[in-house]
């Protein structure tokens, strides 16, 4: 089991990762999308096609850092690359399912990409969403969606999460807004999960399942005008620390599985 693909790729829609120097010490590829238009929050069709073409060329497909949660819809593109039946395991304070009665949800967005994936990717068998604080378990009428809401009243075991993942293969997507404000700083409202708990879930899934890929988002958008401000420096430090711990968990489990094989 473990991570099937190798390598790390940073997708740069802004300067966020350029400021995370320790994270950049890991061997990686950089993709520069800073000049791309019509991609913030919503992705228009011409930009979507451009992103798909450029992402298809990347070599390092194991772990992908996407940037701000504004661009979480990139996961939809990455899911389309998978060639076997799989389960999406999403750690997020928002289900990103969208609402059918909103006309603008016909456009791929950071808030609707899971719905797009369920509709357009036949190999996607189920979406298991872990961590929303304002969503109930029966939020979606789609039987392929299983939600583990975190409201402070429930304590889900790793066994209970694994019990609803019926495929051998998974794809793991992590939005750091699932974490409490002590462990991460994002531009969206945040959940209550702590980083230790997240890493425990991650370890267990990587032991039990074959991961087609892993992506991480949830950065605070950074640009040259705010990158040196003290409060932004604090947020950069906090997010880099979380990114490093998540990355180390992924690499550790991948190394152990490859060694065992």
TrEMBL record:
SUPFAM superfamilies for the chain: Arginase/deacetylase
**InterPro entries reported for this sequence:** Ureohydrolase, Ureohydrolase_dom_sf
Coiled-coil intervals, chain numbering: none
- Which Gene Ontology molecular function entries are recorded, alphabetically? hydrolase activity, acting on carbon-nitrogen (but not peptide) bonds, in linear amidines; metal ion binding
Note the Gene3D superfamilies from the entry.
Ureohydrolase domain (3.40.800.10)
Q: What family is this?
A: Belongs to the arginase family.
Q: Name it.
A: Arginase family protein
Q: Which organism is it from?
A: Neobacillus bataviensis
Its taxonomic placement starts with: Bacteria, Bacillati, Bacillota, Bacilli, Bacillales
